[in-house]
Amino acid sequence: MKQDLLRRTFVSAGSVAAIGAASGRSAAARPALLGGDPVRTRPFPSWPQTRPEDEASWVDALRACKWWRREGHYVRDFEKTWAERLGARHVIATANGTSALMASLHALEVGPKDEVLVGPYTFIATINAILALYALPIFVDTDPATHLLDAGKIEGAITPRTRCILPVHLGGNVADMDAILDIASRRNVPVLEDACQAHLSEWRGRKAGTLGQLGCFSFQKFKNLPGGEAGAVVTSDRSLHRHAYGFHSHYRSPDETAPDPAISRNGINLRLAEFQAALLLAQMKRLDEQMQRREQNAEYLTALLREIPGITPARMHPGCTRNAYHLYMLRYDEAAFAGLPRSRFLEAVRAEGIPLGAGYGPLNRDPFLENTLRSRNFRAIYTEKEIQQWRERNQCPANDRLAREGMWLPQHVLLAGRSDMEEIAAALRKVQQNAAGLRQT
Ligand SMILES: Cc1ncc(COP(=O)(O)O)c(C=O)c1O
After folding, report:
1. Residue 371 and residue 224: Cα distance in Å, rounded?
2. What is the pTM of this model?
3. How far apart are alpha carbons 195 and 63 in whole angstroms?
4. How confident is the model at residue 23 (pLDDT cuts 50, 70, 90)?
5. Comparing C-alpha atoms, which of 311, 105, 348 is closest to residue 215?
6. Which atom from ligand 1 is nearest to the alpha carbon of 101?
7. With a 6 A CB cut-off, is 122 part of the ligand 1 pocket?
8. For position 1, what pLDDT does the model report?
9. How confident is the model at residue 100 (pLDDT cuts 50, 70, 90)?
10. Which CATH class is domain 52-285?
11. Under DSSP, is residue 267 helix (H, G, I), strand (E, B) or coil?
12. With a 6 A CB cut-off, is 168 part of the ligand 1 pocket?
């Protein structure tokens, strides 16, 4: 087996060299995957980035020895500052974005036998938060042009069991909130925005995460505002705030005093530690500057990529007035690349020094869902007929297509310079020019 692998490696390396030589083209024109020179050898900016002020803030929290929110001031300062940045009344800092979603769903009293309308093109955490409360995620198909929930398909999915609409502002691109809020108010269903990837994104000048009854953020290490592991619930509703806060801290009141006997219920501990809040406050000072750079580079990159047939950058709804570009999302049409499969295309682009990744897979068809629905706890709640009906409703053909075609660049690539955007486009063009050769090897 090992011998065979070695032989194949040798043969393919040999044929690569032969193709290169036979083509008689310069090393710069030849794809890096076939032995040519890569378009780019310099790395893109790394992530996360630290500065001395991060360290000072962190060390201060450490030395204060007031490491949890009731004693220290960093968690509370962070909540106040983030609320001001968003224009929201209340923020609850949480251990991560998943727990922010769980606390929000709890506040909306989502539970067994309830349905939550959600798009399948998202990180698994959005779905796991719903399942953690024993509710069912009802998948609404994706609009492949924006990579976001197709708002036109929401109304047809509403049933008497629908308890919440959960749009995800994926990659910082904001879902069609005009349409979603209109349906929500007509059908009297609350909206919880998953803004985990949409720090400071805007819909008609209002911050993503503040348009529905509740919004959630993640400040995990890769996010535009990174704190290692951290999250936040955002709401301007006093009662939802109390219930989300309570769930996240054993139903204590928002000032961390004893539970209010009038409302206290089951809660858990999803609190954020002082260290992460200290780091987030320091990191937040750079957020605006970084956001502007991402936006400028994304706009330039879009103009460059529009010239490449078969590459389609994700469209923004006209109402999306700012995009955080946590991901720069695009679609690939192999027909414009001599039938080169996406996996091979990505390999070739990465060999040119561009960290382009495949997008999400078809999450609504992932085996973890069936295993969950067949688990003892779910079988105790849902009848076989209900589960079968869920399966029959779980059809998202546009999302299936996007799962085959979607790709993205991570946000920190957009922190590079203008000429780096030109190199991204140059790499894609080079792979396109060599697509037929790449397909044969
Ligand atoms: C869209 C989305 N929702 C939820 C989450 C969950 O956040 P966390 O990883 O902080 O729990 C993430 C994190 O990657 C996310 O991207």
Report:
1. 33
2. 0.94
3. 33
4. low
5. 105
6. 4
7. yes
8. 37
9. very high
10. alpha beta
11. coil
12. yes
